Amino acid sequence: MNDTILVSDATKVIKNRVVLDAVSVSLDRGGIYGFLGVNGSGKTMLFRAISGLIHLTSGFIEVFGKRIGADVDFAPGLGLCLEPIGFWDDLTGFDNLMALASIRHLVGEEEVRGSLQRVGLDPADTRPFGSYSLGMRQRLNIAQAIMEKPELLVLDEPTNSLDVEGMGRVRSIILEEREGGCTVLVACHNEPDLEALFDRTFLMESGRLREAI
Amino acid sequence: MRKQTTKNLALPRLPIRRDWLLRSLGCAAVQVLLVVFMSSGGMTTLLFIVAGSVFVPQAHPSFLSMLMSLLPLASWCLAMAGCLGEVLHEEGPLVAYRCTSKESWLLFRLLHLALLSIAFVWMGNLSSSAVLAVLSDAVHLGVAFMVSLWSSLVEGLLVAVLALLINLLALKAGEVGAFSIVFGAHAATLAALGNAPIELAATLSMFLPSTQGILAWHACQGLSETLAGFAGGPTLWWSFLYLAVVLAVILAFSARALRTVEIL
Fold it and tell me: Could you identify which of A51, B61, B218, B229 might form a hypothetical disulfide with B65, taking C-beta atoms 3.0 to 4.6 angstroms apart as the criterion?
């Protein structure tokens, strides 16, 4: 079994703008990898490409031996936390996660409750998602990403809108997931507490990737 | 991660989007309001309204009447033009990767849209009939319901075809652009046939998707006059089957087209 995420010469052009410029990197399973860069530098686009949400203009990406777009549509064993957060406004947090869990049938009510508790949300909360604060929305977004015990967890700015307690939970979750063998990719801006967790840190600038030393 | 079961090969069962439902209810309410304003027209009003997608230029109604009869459908088509784009953008990062393929999720949402199209037509037509029966002595509730029911069989599919075409095209041309192209073509087809020689119009209307509603309209007009076993019955079933096949072809085509869609 292949244990790496291999990004090879990944290039993406959208409306004549190069958003990923020949990005190449190899990431071993079980690490925590940080991607830093200003808004629009290409972090989110790289995450979308690794996940399988977009197609590359050239180059290829393999996740644990499966080539995205050829062998599989989406990265295998993926848990994904991206914006925008498109939950169903009229459902509670628990019901939202149950609706998502019903797609793959990998987890049941117990695991969904557990993931809500891990992010600091009350599974018995009867308020609909539409009435959630930004911080609660972000917590729910993280909960859906981790609820199915992913092999690859992709977190795009996971501490956005979170308070200090929420940020602490995110750090704990990242470490716990790694302990369980999960590979974690994190994009963030200037967050020393989070950056301290990274096994390797990469800088993105104008679609180009380089490793921070 | 646990091994995926084979169940995820099926279309995912996701909640219906409440905003889609609210938009449809709003447009159905527009139709009922129109009925209230035009209630003095009695059965003619009902036939105009339930055949909203099917104005009848051959009968030379006033421009305003034609415009009003198209208004509920036009407003609904425009309000729903961006549904597919919305789910791609909003639901995509949550739902797409949980499905084995993009097309299974998007096809499921297109099916939702098709069912909502049919529901919109039924809601609008049945509530319009009820309101008209209350407001106009010339309209009997039973007859009005029968006309609405039969007409809605064909109209529901016709509206679903329009909605799917608009939504698919909107991914490339934008919502307003796609609405203008598809609804414009629909209205232009009706107008052109309305001004064509009657024999030519009658022949062509059998084979164009947009004109299937005209056949239904005439069938329902016959129904309103005879109340039973109307002569247009077989024509209505032809239109129903024809549009069902067109809808199936669009869904099959969508499955191929949506494979390459990106979730940006």
Answer: B61
